[in-house]
Design a protein that fits this description.
This protein is α/β, with parallel strands linked by helices. It has helices spanning 15-37, 52-67, 83-94, 114-118, 132-140, 149-161, 180-189, 204-208, 258-261, 275-298; strands at 11-12, 42-48, 71-77, 101-104, 169-173, 193-197, 213-216, 234-237, 241-244, 250-253, 267-268. It folds into 2 domains: 39-123, Leucine Dehydrogenase, chain A, domain 1 (Rossmann fold); 149-276, Rossmann fold. Helix 6 (149-161) crosses helix 10. The chain is globular. Bound molecules: 5,10-Methenyltetrahydrofolate and magnesium ion. Its EC number is 1.5.1.5, 3.5.4.9. NADP(+) binds at residues 174-176, 199, 240.
Length: 299
């Protein structure tokens, strides 16, 4: 007798709705923070160069920051900006009491070493969580650190979908400092068995296929195909690539071939409307966290 496997009804995780809930939560906390400390949290965003996609993100960040009741300070610098000049701006913002969070939009133009700039941000203002102090606190599970926005957003989405991650096999595809590595640390803290597949991994599909949780952050559009997916897996798709369509317009796709995941995955985040909005919501959350940390450093 032939076994009949009925296709799974894949749940599409509504990142926009989750992000709206987080933003509302932050807005209320910001209001309380203002009442108690007579201070409004302020976020400085620095964009070097004029990449149109980056300009859209940065503007979107400013709008969301205002929505949460916080102040937003934009610094748009020309692509010709020198590393020394950028570092001077970062240092000025480090010492500015109105600024609680600093985000330097990546990637930076050639000729500016991103490590020099990121490690120049005061750790308690580093809302991207990329400073060695914050990365170290995450790895050691120490309090008082800031967790990178995208992995934090992915964690919140997973926590809202999965009661307990203890003992689950989580596979992270991509090992960047911004997403893959901190994501793996967070999943480890949740009690997952964690595998990281990366550019040199020999058979990434075989590794990915073991994941009860599959987080994909490679920037490689539609890398993950149907056979990479364990039936019933929860997929978090961090990738976002704009591709041209036949009618001369563009559309966004993730690192997962979405149509192929339907019917196999248990749940999946869409692109757009999945991880992206949560990243911005968590940036707001980190800005409030940073403002709270700065109160502690004053006492
Ligand atoms: N220092 C730094 N920190 C970052 O966190 C950072 C960065 N640099 N450089 C660029 C990437 C990219 N990124 C996104 C944030 C939100 C959406 C987002 O809101 N996406 C919408 C779609 C937006 C659209 O329509 O283009 C969505 O997925 O629904 C996307 C991408 C943060 N990044
Ligand atoms: Mg981020």
């Amino acid at each position: 007798m032939k076994t009949q496997t009925s296709p799974i009804q894949t749940k599409i995780i509504d990142g926009k709705a989750h992000a709206a809930r987080v933003t509302e939560e932050i807005r209320e906390k910001v209001s309380l923070f203002q009442q108690h400390h007579q201070t409004t949290p302020g976020l400085a965003v620095i964009l070097v160069g004029n990449d149109p996609a980056s300009e859209v993100y940065v503007r979107n960040k400013a709008i969301q920051t205002h929505k949460a009741g916080m102040r937003s300070f934009m610094h748009m610098l020309p692509a010709s900006t020198s590393e020394a000049h950028l570092l001077t701006l970062v240092e000025r913002l480090n010492n500015d009491p109105e600024i609680h969070g600093i985000l330097v939009q990546l990637p930076l133009p050639e000729g500016i070493n991103p490590t020099t700039i990121i490690q120049g941000i005061a750790p308690h203002k580093d809302v991207d969580g990329l400073h060695a102090t914050n990365a170290g606190k995450l790895a050691l599970n120490l309090p008082g650190g800031i967790i990178p926005c995208t992995p934090l957003g992915c964690l919140l989405l997973l926590q809202s979908e999965i009661e307990s991650m203890r003992g689950l096999h989580a596979v992270v595809v991509g090992a960047s400092n911004l997403v893959g590595k901190p994501m793996a640390q967070l999943l480890l803290q949740q009690g997952c068995t964690v595998s990281i597949a990366h550019i040199d991994t020999r058979n990434p599909a075989e590794i990915a296929q073991q994941g009860d949780i599959l987080v994909v952050a490679t920037g490689n559009k539609e890398l993950v195909r149907r056979h990479w997916i364990k039936p019933g897996a929860t997929i978090i798709d961090v990738g976002i690539t704009r591709i041209p369509t036949e009618d001369g317009k563009t559309r966004l796709v993730g690192d997962v071939t979405f149509e192929e995941a339907l019917g196999v995955a248990g749940r999946i985040t869409p692109v757009p409307g999945g991880v992206g909005p949560m990243t911005i919501a968590c940036l707001l959350r980190n800005t409030l966290t940073a403002a709270e940390l700065q109160l502690d450093t004053k006492d």
